[in-house]
Amino acid sequence: MNKIASFTIDHIRLQPGIYVSRRDRVGDSVITTFDIRMTSPNQEPVMNTAEVHTIEHLGATFLRNHREWAERTIYFGPMGCRTGFYLLLAGDLTSQDIVPLMQELFLFIRDYKGEVPGACARDCGNYLDMNLGMANYLAGRFYDNVLSCITPDRLVYPE
């Protein structure tokens, strides 16, 4: 069986950043999948499920309500390894194209206070597994350490 493309990325050299994971054609349209890598794989602890779940709820809500990107947002959700998130957007896009959007998103998550959207038994299958404080912290850390000063090497996968 052939390895899927995401398993061919050197996860030893991969650092936090925004990467184009793949582009897929669906009819006449292109869907770009982004790897929003928040932690260094195999080098630092992964995020716990509660904060990942909270970031997912806040991120999906923010993106699907965004004035410019709502109609292009296909999916936002966690990686199984808990080192980041996948974002699927309609369009043939580059990592640089979404830097302002990611800055806005992670500042929103960093500063969010109050009830997490969808965090109730009626709306979510695991609503008790949330940690807003850690989600705020991790979003702030990602913004401060990566997004506020992002460099070209954090926008293209390492070879």
TrEMBL record:
It catalyses: S-(5-deoxy-D-ribos-5-yl)-L-homocysteine = (S)-4,5-dihydroxypentane-2,3-dione + L-homocysteine. This is S-ribosylhomocysteine lyase. Keywords: Autoinducer synthesis, Iron, Lyase, Metal-binding, Quorum sensing. Involved in the synthesis of autoinducer 2 (AI-2) which is secreted by bacteria and is used to communicate both the cell density and the metabolic potential of the environment. The regulation of gene expression in response to changes in cell density is called quorum sensing. Catalyzes the transformation of S-ribosylhomocysteine (RHC) to homocysteine (HC) and 4,5-dihydroxy-2,3-pentadione (DPD). Belongs to the LuxS family. It comes from the Bacteria. Gene3D superfamilies: S-ribosylhomocysteinase (LuxS). Fe cation binds at residues 53, 57, 124. Its EC number is 4.4.1.21. GO terms for molecular function: iron ion binding; S-ribosylhomocysteine lyase activity. It comes from Candidatus Egerieimonas intestinavium. Binds 1 Fe cation per subunit. Homodimer. Its cofactor is Fe cation. It is an enzyme of class 4 (lyase). GO terms for biological process: quorum sensing. InterPro entries: LuxS_sf, Metalloenz_LuxS/M16, S-ribosylhomocysteinase.
